[in-house]
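Our collaborator T.R. sent over the components below with a one-line note: 'Predict the complex.' Nothing else. No constraints on interfaces, no templates requested, no preferences about which chain binds where. So this is a plain run: every listed entity goes in together, and whatever single assembly comes back becomes the starting point for the next discussion.
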Amino acid sequence: MDTDDLSRFCCQNTDCPDHGIRGRGNLTVCARYGPHQRRLLYCKTCKARFSERKGTPLFDTRLPEAKVVEVLAHIAEGCGVRKTGRLVGVNKDTVVRLSLLAGQHAQQLHDKLVAFSPEDTGGPVR
Ligand SMILES: [Zn+2]
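Returned assembly:
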């Protein structure tokens, strides 16, 4: 179970020369935390530490991850904000926030939530 595939992560420190660049090999797992054993990543380039969830819509939300996934799945299916909120049972403001975040992080989302990928939008995304 210990597959530390960090290729989809990149340094979150905006001052780092490797910021936003994936697959550099600059990241290592320095710790695990929380009930879900989230990984704490360490960037060898700038020596920053950050959560693997940082920079994704799943980070820093008070919703359980399952709810977040559900919301995003509905959005991806073309459900409106109101309808999504009603179906999933979350505030529509939360839906808006998540969908905005999701838009900014479409790539990471695609990687993370392949399960809800509604359709093939052409070519594998890496
Ligand atoms: Zn860095």
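Summary for T.R.: The helical segments are 65-76, 81-88, 92-104, 106-112.
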